[in-house]
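Exercise 7b. Backbone tokens:
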């Protein structure tokens, strides 16, 4: 399915506004911390940095900034941006929803605005589609079987590992703390815009699982979800590796208890696995007409015959 030009421009504009909102809050935190290095350590989980007032952003905002900017560029450059719009909008909706019960007025207003923009983005992706590819425009290839299987396995593993960690914390912490990890209660220290940790984990489990299934099935539009999931996996792994390195856990791996070793291994898997997913899905897909792609080509041709245009669209459409 391709996207009409008005829908592409509208989606790109919505993504650009989402990116600008994230950038504005990041610049505010940067001014409060005074150093990009300190801001990076704050995103990595260091809660002891000198800062005036409560920080607003987290690593989630950095990833959403990159994802929104990438989706905006995709909307301007490609007729096949519907999947990028849908993935970005859906994840933004899920991650900003807890902001509705955030006591900070600025964070609440931001959540309301971003939820509205994300909902509009999902609607744009849904209603702005038209069947068939534009004349002389190749369809984007699906991931090749080998890379698709590897990326899907990595994302599925990431979902299982994250779910197991949440089950571990649910068993270790008191019930009140477990509820706070999901709702963002008083016992949880977090940035104003950051989703509660358990809410974030459940959202990422859903994202990794959805990405794994779509990639393993080699759906035509699985790249956007898989790449977004890989970006979150790699970013979380990078932050965790930074923390474990700062606290000298990697250098003393043999002396760590089982919990510490699992923490280090999870961090390394997140970083390396996420980067691998990005590399596997960013590569060139299977070209139309390759073995196993005939069904997709036939489906695209049928869509074009049923709903496509009888003549080439005007230049720039």
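Sequence design result:
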């Amino acid at each position: 399915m391709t996207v009409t030009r008005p829908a592409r421009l509208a989606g790109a504009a919505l993504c650009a506004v989402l990116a600008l909102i994230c950038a504005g809050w990041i610049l505010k935190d940067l001014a409060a911390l005074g150093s990009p290095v300190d801001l990076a350590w704050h995103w990595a989980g260091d809660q002891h940095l000198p800062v005036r007032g409560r920080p607003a952003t987290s690593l989630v905002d950095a990833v959403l900034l990159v994802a929104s900017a990438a989706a905006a560029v995709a909307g301007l450059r490609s007729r096949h941006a519907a999947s990028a719009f849908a993935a970005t909008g859906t994840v933004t909706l899920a991650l900003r929803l807890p902001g509705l019960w955030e006591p900070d007025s600025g964070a609440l207003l931001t959540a309301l605005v971003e939820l509205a923009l994300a909902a509009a983005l999902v609607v744009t992706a849904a209603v702005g589609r038209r069947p068939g590819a534009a004349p002389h425009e190749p369809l984007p290839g699906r991931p090749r079987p080998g890379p698709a299987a590897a990326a899907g396995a990595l994302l599925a593993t990431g979902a299982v590992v994250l779910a197991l960690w949440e089950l571990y914390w649910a068993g270790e912490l008191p019930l009140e703390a477990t509820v706070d990890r999901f709702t963002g209660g008083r016992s949880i220290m977090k940035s104003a815009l950051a989703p509660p940790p358990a809410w974030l984990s459940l959202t990422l489990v859903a994202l990794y699982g959805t990405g794994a299934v779509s990639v393993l099935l080699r759906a035509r539009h699985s790249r956007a979800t898989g790449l977004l999931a890989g970006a979150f996996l790699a970013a979380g792994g990078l932050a965790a590796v930074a923390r474990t390195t700062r606290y000298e856990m990697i250098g003393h791996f043999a002396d760590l208890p089982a919990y510490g070793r699992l923490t280090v291994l999870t961090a390394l898997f997140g970083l390396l696995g996420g980067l691998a997913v990005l590399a596997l899905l960013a590569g060139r897909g299977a070209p139309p007409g390759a073995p196993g792609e005939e069904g997709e080509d036939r489906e695209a041709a049928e869509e074009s015959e049923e709903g496509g245009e009888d003549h080439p669209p005007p230049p720039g459409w």
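Instructor comment: DSSP finds eleven helices and two strands in the chain. The two ends are 15 Å apart (CA to CA).
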